[in-house]
Each structure stands twice: as structure tokens, then as C-alpha cells.
Amino acid sequence: MDTIRHFTKVFKCTYIHLFIYCLILFSDSVVPSSSIVKSLPGFPGPLPFNLETGYIAVDEKEDVQFFYYFVESEGSPRDDPLMLWFTGGPFCSGFSSLAIGIGPILFNKIEYNGSLPTLTLNPNSWTKAASIIFIDAPAGSGFSYSRSLEGYQTGELLLAHQIFNFLKKWLLSHPKFISNPLYLGGQSYGGIIIPLVAQEVAKSIEAGHTPKFNFRGYLLGNPLTDLNIDWNSNVSFAHRMGLIPDELYEAVKITCKEQYRGNYDKNSSCANNLNAILHCTEKLNDQHILEPKCTTYTANGKTEFINRKSLLEKPSPDFPEFECRSYNSLLIHSWANNEAVQRALHIQKGTIETWIRCPDNVPHKFQATSVILYHQHLHSRGYKALIYSGDHDMLVPYIGTQTWIKSLNIPIVSTWRPWLVNDQIAGVVDIQPRSTGLRSAFPCSKDGSRTTLSNSTYCTETIIFAAASVFPLQPQTDPRPANISAAAGLAEPKQFVRCVF
Ligand SMILES: *[C@@H]1O[C@H](CO)[C@@H](O)[C@H](O)[C@H]1NC(C)=O
Ligand SMILES: *[C@@H]1O[C@H](CO)[C@@H](O)[C@H](O)[C@H]1NC(C)=O
Ligand SMILES: *[C@@H]1O[C@H](CO)[C@@H](O)[C@H](O)[C@H]1NC(C)=O
Ligand SMILES: *[C@@H]1O[C@H](CO)[C@@H](O)[C@H](O)[C@H]1NC(C)=O
Ligand SMILES: *[C@@H]1O[C@H](CO)[C@@H](O)[C@H](O)[C@H]1NC(C)=O
């Protein structure tokens, strides 16, 4: 409740801010800086999509500069939706999503030998059907920075407000996109931030402020939403996945009274049971329980390699194994810290020391313990939401997501049904509300999804779908999935997309 109250206070200031921003936009010294990027080192030839990068100041003093990558839709940018995407982490650079996620490029997975890692096109980029702004936020993430030390101090409410300011100023400096349908998107930790931003946008619309956001809704993947629900759900997740015995599960439920967080001191039998569970699960890769647990490539101050020499000294303690997904982080790190790359991206010299994909030293206040109320408010205002989950994520397990969605008490329009692709089950879908719907979709296949569906247009990891009634994606080569949204009166989903954290 506190967060909501605080939020209203923050919101009131924006009216004043808006006036200041209008002045700013007409004075050339502080117009947001943006550049068109025609080619990128490591990618052969000119880029076959339109990429713009730039900085936008998001605070009153113009100290805090958010860096962004804007990829214009490769479909019909005039009509396609515009989406602002916030990468999770917390604090992971938006470039993660652009280059190893939903964006138009991928890294060629070639063993690093000191040369610049090379890029290729992602055939399943969401930018085939939507224009997407990928941001580095807060200051200290990716290429975003602050001119003052205090600008690095941040918290969830402030960050959401800064992202809202960013969006407002971005639209004012790109007026041709103001009328496009607007969506917000994110995953994992983005589940906390996006609803806060969405609420600011909704309030701005209600107050009749400029710009007139054509805001339609938001999409979230394995979103952290309610710390208690989400973090409590990993014990039942472990049980449902067959990782712990029934007897232990029954015992832990009773001894811990189904509250598994912070219970170690309370009751020794509860603590013993939790330890027994941890013993069974701690060696798993909790981001994807079927993938090997690899060395995490953090590249933070402490464990940093910067120069090429130390990078080649294998095995280094933070050097991921080649087979691992985290190997991408190493390629990204080496690419983004290359001087020619930074020149191509129009990075302002001297603004950051080392680009780190997911820094862990941002002075950020974790404030929200639950954003369920925000979902409720947004739903009652008629905004759409697509909540999708992968069933192998143990950090934000789908079980917690189902629990909080159920707590919204939104009537179910269509119950679980298989989601077919090429006649194979790719997942299940559950459509919740009326025509303005909150929709949740859960994959039900286990290993089948990875073997039979592994190299197609849908996910290779836990997330089997991210579909399209929220914003329509153009069909590519694959046949369409089942017409799951007809019952909810939503637009027809057109394609599965690949989504990799
Ligand atoms: C590294 O490998 C790439 C691709 O095989 C090659 O083009 C490049 O010359 C190599 N660089 C070095 C320094 O060996
Ligand atoms: C722990 O909780 C269980 C179930 O409520 C109870 O039977 C047991 O006596 C408690 N143990 C301790 C040490 O408090
Ligand atoms: C479940 O999540 C909590 C909080 O993040 C963590 O402390 C605990 O170790 C996790 N338990 C398992 C079995 O993964
Ligand atoms: C993977 O893609 C290749 C090339 O398109 C295709 O021949 C193969 O059948 C696909 N495998 C699966 C499991 O879909
Ligand atoms: C899906 O459902 C919609 C709404 O009922 C309908 O207009 C559309 O033709 C259907 N598409 C397919 C492929 O069945």
C-alpha cells in the first residue's frame, strides 16, 4: 500500500515536469541526442533493419542519461505497434534482449579467440512486427550514466518514473510514432518495473497530458510479481518437477506451514526439511533446470577481465564453458567493450568505464514487494496483458505466476487447452478475462518441447510461446498455431516467437 501512496505523490510532480520538458525540447542544447546506425562491427554489410541509438535525460537536472537502441519494425512501421522493452536482471543492459533475445541480431557462437565476435540475423525477431525501444536503465546499466553521483542512486519507484519520463520524451522527439499502438514489455525482474511504468502511463492518459499515449497494454514473461508468492513457489515447483520425494514435500508443507522464506530460524524441523530440499536442488541451473549449471559470466568489478590477455587465460574462474548459454555473455562483453563498436553505436566518450551486461553494484532500492494491485488497476482500466511463462524457470516459477493470476479473480473465458505447432504440443493456454483480457499461457510439455521443437521459430528454452494477440506478429514459415484467442475475442495469434533470456 505504501508503494501505491508514494506512487501517487511521484505522479503529481510529473505535471510540472512536463512543462519543463516542453521548454527543453525547444532549446537545442538539450534536445535528446540520437544517431542512425547503418552498420555494426562484426555484421557483414549494412544492417537490413533501421537502428537508432541515443540518450535521453530522465531527471530534472538532466544528469541521468538513459541510453537506448531503437529498432524500427521490419514490417509496416507506420502501423505496427511500438514497444518499450525493459530487460530484467535487475540492471541487465537492453542490449541483452536486442542481441540474444527478442531482437534482430544474434551472436555467432564461435569460440572466442581474441577477434571481435561476429553477428548474424535472428530470423524470429519480434521487430518483424513491432518497433521496439530497448533501454539501458537505470543509470549504471549498459551505456546509461549519470553526470552526478547522486544520479546513480535509484529505486523501483524512481526507476519507473524515469522510464516513464524517457518514454514521454522519446515520443515527443519521434512524433510520427505517437499514434502507433503502444505496449510495454519485459521479463523476470521487469515484472516489478513494467506495471509501475504502465500505471504512470495510464494516469497520464487519464489526466489528458501530452503526449497522448496510445497505450494498449503490456506483456511479461516469467515476471517477478509478488515476492512472497513467487519465491514461495519454488518448493512446489521442485515437487511438481519430480525433484523431491512426496514424503519430503508433505513434511515440509506441514512443518513450515507452507511458508518457506525466512523460516530457517523458526522451526528446526522446517529448517531440516528445507535443507533436505536444497540438497536435492542446489546443483540445478535455476534459470533453466534442464540446462547444465555453468559458470556464470558476471564480469563485474571484482571478477572482471578487461584485457584480451586475461580473457584468453583459460580456465578463468568466471569463464563460461563453450556449451553453455552463458558463453553468449562473454561474446557480448567482448563485443560491447570494443572501441569500434562503441564508435558505431555513438557512445559518448568517457561516460562509462566498462560496459557490463548485468552490473551488480547499482545502488538500487528494492521497494515493491508486490505489484498485484497494479495489475488489478490496469486490468480494471481495460488494458491488455499477456503473461507468458516457461515451465523450467525455477527462479520465477510458473506456479507462482498462476497463483497471483488466480488471486485477481478474473473470470476464465477458456480453460487450459493444448497449443499445437506442427501437430505437436508446444504448450497450453488459458485465457482469462473478457474481451480486454489478461491471458496466461503455460507450456505443459517437458522434454518433448526441447527435442521436437528445438530449432523452429519458437523457444529453445523454457518459454514455449509468446504469442501474438497482444500485438500481431506476421506469420513466417511455420503454420499458424491453434486459434486460441478466438474465444476471448482477441486478435488472432499469428506466430510463435523465440524468446531467450
Ligand atoms: C579467430 O577466429 C575467426 C573465425 O574462425 C578468424 O576469422 C580470426 O582470424 C581468428 N582470430 C585470431 C586472432 O586468431
Ligand atoms: C515445528 O512445527 C511442527 C508443525 O507445526 C511441530 O509439530 C513441531 O513441534 C515444531 N518443532 C519445533 C522445534 O518447534
Ligand atoms: C527458493 O527461493 C528462495 C528465495 O529466493 C531461496 O532462498 C531458496 O533457496 C529456494 N529454494 C529452492 C529449493 O530452490
Ligand atoms: C531443424 O532445422 C533443420 C533445417 O531447417 C531441419 O532440417 C530439421 O528437421 C529441424 N529439426 C527439428 C527437430 O525440427
Ligand atoms: C480465428 O478466430 C477468429 C475469431 O473467431 C476468426 O475470425 C478467424 O477466422 C479464425 N482463424 C482461423 C485460422 O481459424
Automatic annotation (TrEMBL):
The chain crosses the membrane at residues 12-31. Keywords: Carboxypeptidase, Hydrolase, Membrane, Protease, Transmembrane, Transmembrane helix. GO terms for molecular function: acyltransferase activity, transferring groups other than amino-acyl groups; serine-type carboxypeptidase activity. GO terms for biological process: proteolysis; secondary metabolic process. The keyword DNA-binding does not apply. The keyword Iron-sulfur does not apply. InterPro entries: AB_hydrolase_fold, Peptidase_S10. It holds the Pfam family Peptidase_S10. Belongs to the peptidase S10 family. This is Serine carboxypeptidase-like 18.
